[in-house]
Amino acid sequence: MNAPLAPPPLLHARKQAILAALRGLLPPHCLLSEQEDTRPYECDGLTAYRQLPLAVALPETEAQLMALLKACSALRVPIVPRGAGTGLSGGAMPIADGIVISTAKMSRILALDPLARTARVQPGVRNLAISEAAAAHALYYAPDPSSQIACTIAGNVAENSGGVHCLKYGLTLHNVMRVRMVSMDGEIIELGGAALDAPGLDLLAVFIGSEGMLGVVTEVTVRLIPKPPLARVIMASFDDVITGGDAVAEVIAAGIIPAGLEMMDRTSVRMVEPFVKAGYDTNAAAILLCESDGMPEEVEEEIERMSEVLLRAGASAIAVSGSEAERMRFWSGRKNAFPAAGRLSPDYYCMDGTIPRKRLAEVLQGIAAMEQTYGLRCANVFHAGDGNLHPLIMFDANQPGEFDRAERFGEAILALCVEVGGTITGEHGVGIEKIDAMCGQFTVNEVAAFIGVKRAFDGAFLLNPNKAIPTLDRCAAYGKRQARGGVFKFVKQVGA
Ligand SMILES: Cc1cc2nc3c(=O)[nH]c(=O)nc-3n(C[C@H](O)[C@H](O)[C@H](O)COP(=O)(O)OP(=O)(O)OC[C@H]3O[C@@H](n4cnc5c(N)ncnc54)[C@H](O)[C@@H]3O)c2cc1C
């Protein structure tokens, strides 16, 4: 093995100065600077991109975090906030001369009020831990990303995360009432409040989904809702994906808002079934999972209505969960789709884009054609109800050129999403992964407005820089590249 290269002297001296300043602010076990200690933080869930940080700070208190940010601001050290590192777009990827601030040690539930139906939690509390704590009061926190066993509430806030139940209950944005955060200058800012509406500009909505670029979250107050007494799920099989896609539109058009409406194509079903044994129909070209929850009478009536719509829309078979165990089994396949991809292929690239529901069938056909163009297989799972696609592009990074092709395949999917009136991300954020695609989605004026908001919170651009919002220069270069490649049509023109 090669010996690690010695850092250039200037960087080394600067590193020592920064570490000396930070050592005075944190207990020794809260600051990591040796390579073997910082290695676990070199990437998030987008493992294709890695970078060791200058150091990792793990503050235990809000006061430590404030002092840390003040010092970094004075020394002009960039910061990357980090939760559990499950993000899939590189949002928590370190910067070589920056500090990763992990909030993993701030993981206490501070208050749970069953009467107000709220929980006030520290940033490092796991999503699922909130529902587990609320279960004693028959309450739960609705947004349920498939990573909920590991991902943190601050990560959810930063990404405006969704999950299978967000069609009915809303995204993180709709379930968070208040965020307390520390600005890059080390000052406390509180956004939102205890009531449905808060006076002043709605900065909470601006902050949620801002990918760690506006402040570091130290507390989140979430809304809890009563656990429905009953939930049942229909598993519907379709002989072709187009009919399945159209059935999604039919369910919504019938005025039904299912608690969850998820679709998996044949490749996904066959990938998941041997792994999870969820009881899926492996002969189907696509399956839909369609959930109803509420009072028993409501559920029975809705299940009946949804079954009728699905059969009318062309379902070849339907099965309805007869027990809570069976419902969980049906969902287990969908929730394990990403890990199951690892059994089929050494590497996979999970895309995230959103399209208008009525264009689902057409986009699926487009993706199938791209499999031929790029010579790679793609399994499709989606939050079909809200039009959020998760194509899983399978490749082998050890085969020359395959990663490149996977990336180009992904870019083509995003371009198609924009072309049909959708967006380049549904819930995984922009991070580093989709920063160029932002230039295809937004006009120069729109990107300039995003930069203006960033500047208002972080004038020195030290908080998670070069993520989520492209510079105008970058967009100009992207536009030129696209024009040469002949696909400039995806770049919206100013004023378009
Ligand atoms: C198997 C798998 C399934 C997934 N399923 C879903 C899904 O169904 N729905 C979904 O929406 N996502 C899903 N994700 C993506 C990911 O889990 C979410 O984006 C999650 O919210 C990230 O949380 P985290 O704690 O891991 O954050 P990280 O990955 O650590 O960070 C994510 C972003 O949050 C910022 N951040 C973290 N902590 C703070 C803080 N204290 N203050 C300010 N900014 C902060 C980071 O800078 C970064 O930009 C999945 C990921 C995996 C690996």
From TrEMBL:
Residues of the FAD-binding PCMH-type domain: 49-227
EC number: 1.1.3.15
Pfam family, one: FAD-oxidase_C
InterPro entries on file: FAD-bd_oxidored_4_C, FAD-bd_PCMH, FAD-linked_OxidoTrans_Type4, Oxid_FAD_bind_N
Keyword Oxidoreductase applies: yes
Keyword annotations of the record: FAD, Flavoprotein, Oxidoreductase
Transmembrane region(s): none
Gene Ontology molecular function: any one: (S)-2-hydroxy-acid oxidase activity
Organism domain of life: Bacteria
Cited PROSITE patterns: FAD_PCMH (PS51387)
PANTHER family to which the protein is assigned, alphabetical: GLYCOLATE OXIDASE SUBUNIT GLCD
Protein name per Swiss-Prot or TrEMBL: FAD-binding protein
